[in-house]
From TrEMBL:
Protein name: Glycerophosphoryl diester phosphodiesterase
Span of the signal peptide: none
Superkingdom assignment: Bacteria
GO biological process, one term: lipid metabolic process
Domain GP-PDE: 2-238
Gene3D superfamilies membership: Phosphatidylinositol (PI) phosphodiesterase
């Protein structure tokens, strides 16, 4: 059985990393949500992908230079499909308030640079624990130091390194950083490495799997999960 995770919610059909996108993912019958977290200037954990607000909102500037109260005035739907959706940038707290009432998993990706003071990781782990969501959270990042830091803080929360180039025996690497999964770019994970990784107890969740033929390939080789911009379509392909 392959789980379906909506990438930034349902980013192919709704503005990425917004509550309407997350709610659509649940409506689509997906199993999980992937989202990105960063810190505002005043230290709030918010959900947004880029370092700047420019690409997805009607504002400008680096997130770490903006206060939450100003970020909240922006429209995170402004650049998606002629602005037909209006949405705020959510905080992780707001997300959890809704998420607690669902049966979904969430994959929280830390958008951290290689040098970090780990404030984002510490605040996120504390929120997960406060809400008792440890069993439904997976941490991922391209910065694997973030993941090891989280593992040391909360070994009960699953971690999974993101990577975009082929790795030799990825399950060995995952085990070496105490990760329970790997999140490779879908182009760099052949079927035999999926099978071998999973036979060694490492769950494989490739990103971002959007084309029908790619979705079918991962379903056919029993990949643990796929991360897709089109959770509704993926769910439909799964039942064919
Ligand atoms: O987590 C999967 C995917 O989101 C990783 O790439 O660039 O979208 O953060 P990116």
């Amino acid at each position: 059985m392959t789980y379906i995770f909506g990438h930034r919610g349902s980013a192919g059909t709704h503005p990425e990393n917004t509550m309407i996108s997350f709610q659509e993912t649940e409506r689509a019958g997906a199993d999980g949500i992937e989202l990105d977290v960063q810190l505002t200037k005043d230290g709030e954990v918010i959900i947004i992908h880029d370092e700047k607000v420019d690409r997805t909102t009607d504002g400008k500037g680096y997130i770490n230079n903006l206060l939450l109260k100003d970020i909240k005035k922006l429209n995170a739907g402004a650049k998606f499909q002629n602005g037909q959706f209006k949405a705020e940038i959510p905080t992780l707290n707001e997300f959890f308030e809704w998420f607690k009432g669902t049966n979904l998993f969430v994959n929280i990706e830390f958008k951290t640079k290689s040098i970090s003071n780990y404030e984002l990781e510490e605040k996120t782990v504390a929120m997960v624990k406060k809400n008792k969501l440890e069993e439904r959270v997976i941490f991922s990042s391209f910065n694997h130091y973030s993941l090891v830091y989280c593992y040391r803080l909360a070994p009960e929360i699953e971690t999974a390194p993101l990577y975009a180039e082929g790795l030799f025996m990825p399950w060995i690497y995952a085990q070496s950083i105490r990760a329970k999964g790997i999140h490779p770019n879908y182009r760099v994970i052949p079927d035999e490495l999926i099978t071998l990784s999973q036979n060694h107890g490492i769950k494989v969740r490739p990103y971002t799997v959007n084309q029908d033929e790619d979705i079918k390939r991962f379903l056919n080789c029993n990949t643990h999960a796929i991360i897709t911009d089109f959770p509704k379509k993926a769910k439909e392909l799964k039942t064919v």
